[in-house]
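Technical annex, item 7. During the second reporting period the consortium partners agreed on a shared format for inverse folding records so that results from different sites could be compared directly. Each record opens with the tokenized structure and is followed by the designed sequence. A conforming record, contributed by the partner at site C, is shown below for reference.
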């Protein structure tokens, strides 16, 4: 069974969100702050962490950083009323799955939680030549932050090399084949499974 951790100092908000997620069949634990959350992360193996950004004591960015030291494979999402918060960039560098604005869009949140996998990361890359500098920098950073990251390449460029990627698709590609490749790569990761 999937288990997630919600961290928010607004207990009523956290309880309402937990009830919605539990209705989808997941187990949910609540923490009112960073210290309590870290204690739970050392005790349980969560599929996803959902945290607020602005909380007394330890904010969301610091919490995500500390959680990454304890459990680097935990999928992390931030829910915040302050989407322009400068500290969000620090949390993004820790490899967030998503940042969602409050009030939380329940449909997209449930989809993200359903798709969240431990030790998983999906990079969507557009091969527009005008973005090549950004893409090279993004791939460099991903390689530094996530050594051994499985790579899937999807391209519409006819002369693009296959670059030794375990999964290489030319556009237009077969969606079922792409999903099967993602599942294969995920299953091959140490300590993961369906």
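Designed sequence (site C submission):
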């Amino acid at each position: 069974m999937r288990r997630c951790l919600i961290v928010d100092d607004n207990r009523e908000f956290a309880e309402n969100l937990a009830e919605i997620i539990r209705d989808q069949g997941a187990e949910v634990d609540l923490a009112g702050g960073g210290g309590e959350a870290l204690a739970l992360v050392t005790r349980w193996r969560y599929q996803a962490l959902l945290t607020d950004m602005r909380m007394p004591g330890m904010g969301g960015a610091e919490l995500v950083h500390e959680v990454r030291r304890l459990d680097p494979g935990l999928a992390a999402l931030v829910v915040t009323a302050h989407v322009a918060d400068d500290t969000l960039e620090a949390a993004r560098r820790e490899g967030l799955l998503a940042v969602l604005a409050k009030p939380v869009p329940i449909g997209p949140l449930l989809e993200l939680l359903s798709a969240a996998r431990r030790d998983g990361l999906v990079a969507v890359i557009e091969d527009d030549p005008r973005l090549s500098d950004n893409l090279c920098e993004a791939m460099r950073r991903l390689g530094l932050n996530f050594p051994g990251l499985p790579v899937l390449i999807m391209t519409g460029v006819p002369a693009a090399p296959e670059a030794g990627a375990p999964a290489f698709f030319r556009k237009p590609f077969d969606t079922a084949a792409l999903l099967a490749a993602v599942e294969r790569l995920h299953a091959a990761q140490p300590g993961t499974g369906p």
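Residues 42 and 70 are 7 Å apart (CA to CA). The chain has two domains: 3-115, 129-188. All partners now use this format for quarterly exchanges.
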